[in-house]
Amino acid sequence: MIDPKFIRDDIEGIRKLLETRGMTGAVDLDRLKAMNEERRSLVRKSDEAREKKNKLSKEIGQKKSKGENADDLMKQSQACTDDIKQSTDALAALDAEFTEMHLSVPNFLDKSVPFGTGEQDNPVVRTWGEKPKFTFAPKPHYDLGTALDILDFERGVKLAGTRFYVYKGLAAKMERAIINLMLDLHTTEHGYTEVFGPFIVNDDSMIGTGQFPKFKDEYYRCERDGLSLIPTAEVPLTNLYRDEILDQPLPIKITMQSACFRREAGAAGRDTRGLIRVHQFQKVEMVKFADPATSFDELESLTRDAEEVLQKLNLHYRVVLLCSGDTSASSAKTYDIEVWMPGMDRYVEISSCSCFTDYQARRARIRYRKEAGAKPEFVHTLNGSGLAAGRTLAAVMENYQTEKGEIMIPDALKPYFK
Q1: What secondary structure does DSSP assign to 346-395, as a single string?
Q2: Please, what are the domains in the chain?
Q3: Which is deepest, 9, 46, 246, 264, by most CB within 10 Å?
Q4: What are 183-198's pLDDT values in tens digits?
Q5: Starting from the edge strand earliest in sequence, which strands make up the sheet with 193-194, in order?
Q6: How much is the pTM?
């Protein structure tokens, strides 16, 4: 969430932010500001009543010690008690509404983020490698996988419904190899510590990283237990330090492989075939907790860490900087890495790397001290896919296909096939 001081002091700045993000009217800012002022008034009223009650208590004690009648003062004290309860009850009800609306206000964008309304306005920052040349018409991964009997979409539908799948043989082994390559690279060369955590989390965890409350319908939920299946390992990794003051040097760099679960409620009709947009997939996630002074430098290195996976696999890709209208609500700045898919004849997002400044840290109450004894401050959080394993598998299949419909094993994966 944003610092509440902006709600108090710069509501017009927030209004401009919503306009820049293409979210005009998404939050009732007039109501938000009015609630903030009402909250402060109720707190002030409650404090004044407590102060008066404390003063009356002393006077009542003095009168009773002298054997004097204190009935009038006791009535006044009871009235103060009633005022305190009334203010406290009103504040509790108001806080719930204010908090939900406050959580829905997006993060401020970094000044380097270009204005735009959608993905067509995202500038290409750089490219790596070249598109492969084929002497035949390359096939999309879903046709290749079906013909080789290593991707089974029909049985995936039978088991769970549309946009589920089954890996068999080479596909299962290759994705496992891809995940191992990613984890080995990030932990041995990039300095991340591997973590393994729950795939099911509580509401505080989903709130902490920005999935709840606004996007609650996009995720799978176990209502009886009040838990949700994670959409990304960003959620358990970031919330590892929820409600804590970090006592170790920054940046803290952690990585985790997990299954990810998404309803894809807002993606109807998009990429309905293959492994690009599915309800369950595996991903290796990278998360950083950084000093605010260096967090955007850490974003650059995080993005390079994700890129190196594609370089190891010799897959052509490009990096784009998301414009204001395409940047997620929680992020201050995001790079997308898009891999070339020759069978689909287009680029496909394979990683999204973001700096959230203190937006997630405020929600999850994650702080650090600049030096011993200093006042705790909010840390900056970052994350990025390193990479989405299913999309990486699809990219390998399409880029390493042969005219006979077979798939060659990239050199970087061969050690995992011994």
Answers
A1: EEEEEEEEEE-TTHHHHHHT-EE-SSTTPPPEEPEEEEEEEEEHHHHHHH
A2: 5-103 (1.10.287.40), 119-417 (3.30.930.10)
A3: 46
A4: 999 999 999 999 999 9
A5: 124-128, 317-321, 333-341, 346-355, 380-388, 280-290, 252-261, 193-194
A6: 0.91
